[in-house]
Amino acid sequence: MAEETTAAENETVSAEAGNQKLELNAFYGQKAGMTRIFDKEGNHVPVTVIKLIPNYVTQVKTKAADGYEAYQLGYYQKRDKLVTKAHLGKSKKAQLDKAVARFAEVKTDTTDASALGKQISVAGFTPSTYIDVTGISKGKGFQGVIKRHNFAGGPATHGSHLHRSTGSIGCSATPGRVYKQKKMPGHMGTDQKTVQNLMVVEVNEDKGYLLLKGAVPGPKNGFVRIAKALKKA
Question: Which of 134, 133, 102, 135 is nearest to 218 (CA)?
Answer without folding.
Answer: 135
